[in-house]
Amino acid sequence: MNKMVRWIIGAAAVLLACLVLYLKLNPPLASEGHGWSTEQPGLVTVELKNDGIHKVKLTDVLVNGGETPRKVELGVSRSNALVGLFAVKDEIKGISFHPIDEYDIEPSLSREEVIQLDELDNRSTIRHYGLALDHCKKIDVVLVKYTYFGFPFTKEIEIERKE
How confident is the model at residue 89 (pLDDT cuts 50, 70, 90)? Predict the structure, then answer.
């Protein structure tokens, strides 16, 4: 009996190690774009997308190797519009900004789900997520710290400016 318990514990430990390794090699949070202001180099927006199967919880956002930005907000869009600089500067219907811990980033919607939401004219489901950052200096790198299934992750996003 004692041997069987050890075998079960060993198998569970190996499975857990494989799960952790898989999650570390395939982090769920992705960024498919960003925007910046030429007039205000410290004003940046970053699009966020959850490619995983479970929600992502943001815990902290830093810039330029560890500096805390003057202001950081999570933008959520309940329309087909992405969270971008235009939404920060002007009030856009369907896009709102909140503290980063107010909403979890849900897994991305499939194409079929988006089409169905459009057909039903459903504006209650969040379709897009993004970060709006304001800093006293030019932002070159954004570090997003988050948890996924309780495991901590960090996503580094370089802000490439084509000026």
Answer: low
